[in-house]
Amino acid sequence: MSDNSQYQPRIAAFLCNWCSYGAADLAGVSRLQYPPNIHVIRIPCTGRMSPKFILQAFRQGVDGVWVSG
Amino acid sequence: MKSLLEYVGIEPGRLHFSWISSAEATKFQETVVEVTESVKALGPAKHMIKDIRKVA
Amino acid sequence: MEAVAQKIRETAAKLLSEGKVDCVIGYAQGTVPMRDYPYFAYTPEEAQNLTWSPFCCNNLANFLIRRPKGEIGKVAIVAQGCVSRSIVGLIKENQIAREDVYILGVPSPGMVDRRKVQDRFPLKTITEVTVDGEDLVVKGKDFEERIPQKEVRRDNCYTCVQRNPVIVDEMMGEEGPSDWGGNIDAVAAPWEKLEPGERWEAFIDEVDSCIRCYACRDACPLCYCHVCFVDEAMPQWCGKTQDEADVATFHILRAFHCAGRCTDCGACESACPQGIKVRRFTSKIEKDIRELYDYSPGMDLEATPPLSVYRPNDPQEFIK
């Protein structure tokens, strides 16, 4: 953890089923490379998002939160 | 929400919002890289974590 | 002040004896000085206990909600500026019906912060506080002193923008000047001045003494959810310990739930037994709402709350 170049953050990604989750799917199909640090949580719609989720994620020790619609 | 978390001292780079259509795979990939870099630059989170060892 | 109290008593007694309302919600003098408490008068005789003073720190709008349906019919309520704004908010959120409340409007004298008064007499017991014009007469066992009221008001009363009630059925006194002249934007969100690195420390320092009694939540007329997020156990959003993370979660979420609704009545701060300045969180959010949406909650029955509608020109700089 002390060496920053080795440090791999954990990021909770809240993705909308219809938008970003689809984009993630397409990115996979298109063989696009992206960092493996994001942990995807699929939500039915960004409208399902609640500030509670963000705080809960931070409480459980993630380094970053990304919400995408 | 972001503004409030910044106000209490969570680094702005830890929370990201974006809008990506299901056809925008490249935008998705770019955003992932951006988010990861931004969080990486900040280092591990120090606040808000519930440390079970401290509580118990 | 006494004239207003007398008018409240007369009007309350009249409304109750005529059967226009079933209950009058007002304040009665507390047994401890500077602690006037919410009082429910059901009969014209009980209405004689009602009072009005600069010690009425609760937000009475809180008692219009969270009642079993049909328990009490129409009620009258004593409301100054901020309470009437809360009532407007509750009507908009369909928690109460306009025709079920009869609003006895009073211009707010600005409420006194009992802690500020006590701080002037360290280690002394105050036995009696009376109002004399613009001053308070504070009496104890071996002292008596006059303090100007304007030096010991609650923080939120200095920056009040609406002393007169916004909706009213009957006025209990002359409408006063509309504000106290303080600029809320200048003092709201005090931590904005701090460096980002210092903020977390300041925040934890402030809430460190929190005992999680939820008095701030219970005093707030906006917090009417049947199950509050802190009481939910599956999933548990917020732990019940006094751990830093739990306390921080509670305060952040409590403030966030009041976004675009808080009328800055100061009831939360008055209710806090630990003297935590809980308005530091809500004032930040309300400042943002004013800046982003140009909206002040509870001022207008017709205006739509900004967070419940979508407008094409809503600010969205935070989205990439």
Which terms would index this structure?
heterotrimer, A: 69 residues, alpha/beta, 3-stranded parallel β-sheet, 2 helices, 3 strands, 25% strand, flat, C: 320 residues, 6-stranded mixed β-sheet, 3-stranded antiparallel β-sheet, 10 helices, 9 strands, globular
Q: How many structural domains in the coordinates of chain C? A: 2
Oligomer: heterotrimer
Structural class of chain A: alpha/beta
Structure summary, number of beta strands of chain C: 9
Topology readout:
The complex is a heterotrimer of chains A (69), B (56) and C (320).
Chain A lengths: L10 E6 L3 H10 L8 E6 L7 H9 L4 E5 L1
Parallel strand pairs in A: 1-2, 1-3
Chain B lengths: L1 H7 L6 E4 L6 H18 L9 H4 L1
Chain C lengths: L1 H16 L5 E6 L8 E5 L8 E2 L23 E5 L1 H12 L8 E5 L8 H6 L6 E7 L2 E6 L3 E5 L6 H4 L11 E2 L12 H4 L8 H12 L7 H5 L24 H14 L9 H5 L7 H15 L27
Parallel strand pairs in C: 1-4, 4-5, 5-9
Antiparallel strand pairs in C: 1-2, 1-3, 6-7, 7-8
Tell me about this structure.
- The complex is a heterotrimer of chains A (69), B (56) and C (320).
- In chain A, strand 1 (11-16), helix 1 and strand 2 (38-43) form a beta-alpha-beta unit.
- Chain A has one domain (11-68).
- Chain A has a three-stranded parallel beta sheet, sandwiched between helices.
- Chain A has helices spanning 20-29, 51-59; strands at 11-16, 38-43, 64-68.
- Chain A is of the alpha/beta class and 69 residues long.
- The model of chain A has no long low-confidence stretch (mean pLDDT 85).
- By secondary structure, chain B is mostly helical.
- Chain B has one domain.
- Chain B is elongated.
- The mean pLDDT of chain B is 73.
- Chain B starts with a helix and ends with a helix.
- Chain C has 320 residues and is α/β, with parallel strands linked by helices.
- In chain C, 40% of the residues are buried.
- Chain C folds into two domains: 2-113 and 153-308, no CATH class; 114-152, no CATH class.
- In chain C, strand 6 (126-132) and strand 7 form a beta hairpin.
- Chain C has helices at residues 2-17, 81-92, 114-119, 155-158, 184-187, 196-207, 215-219, 244-257, 267-271, 279-293, and strands at residues 23-28, 37-41, 50-51, 75-79, 101-105, 126-132, 135-140, 144-148, 170-171.
- Chains A and B meet through helix 1, helix 2 and strand 3 of A and strand 1 and helix 2 of B.
